[in-house]
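Shipment paperwork, digital attachment
Item: protein structure file
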Amino acid sequence: MEVSLEAPLQEVVTDDIFLGGKLRLLQPARGHRAGHDAMLLAASAPSDARRAVDLGAGVGAAGLALAARIENAEVVLVEIDPAAAALAARNAARQQPDLSARITVVTADVATLGRPSGPALPAARTADLVLMNPPFNDPARHRTSPHAGRALAHSVADADLDIWLRAAERLLEPGGRLALIHRPEAIEAILAGMKGRFGAVTIRPVHPTPAAPAIRVLVGAVKGRRTAPALLPGLVLADRDGRPSAEAERILRSGEGI
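Attachment content:
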């Protein structure tokens, strides 16, 4: 359903249902839109998280899905686009039950987080979990969208992942955990950025169907650990006929963790 927001949010948005109705999100009708990636990212996070930060939160999809799944978890949503951040705040308040008491929305550039000159929240070394859904498309390999909001959300060089990973390290307490979703082609850049900062890396490929190559990877890591990486069993979203798999239904409709 499309609705029109009052000023200052003069934009047509849709009212979308996720997790079988457990989550409702207002999001722009055009440009970058939340989907399965955000839900998979939230589901991949450890269930004992209590102080989480969602980097590049957009309208709040992953962070709000996490808060809906983990009772009492507090989540800071960080988004550089003021319009998206405003929608994230509205989305927190419209959930049943209202999640706004456990959600803080910060409009900021990821590069400034955890620094003396940056925003007061999220503060350095206070999070036990950082969620990360970085812009996917390296401009060197992908055509950038003409829509400004979509380009901002989707396009960044793989080399700039280091900026996001440095921010995550600054925000996490010792032993804090990182969860991110990205394209399989970015694995080399992700592992390079984690070197010396994170260990106990886990990599779970996400396949659209059993015989298809992975289209995403879910990556987990622990700050300060030196344990070798592990490749986990893949997640298959649908069978050969396109019917959702039982695991995908459990995650994307029932809102359970992976």
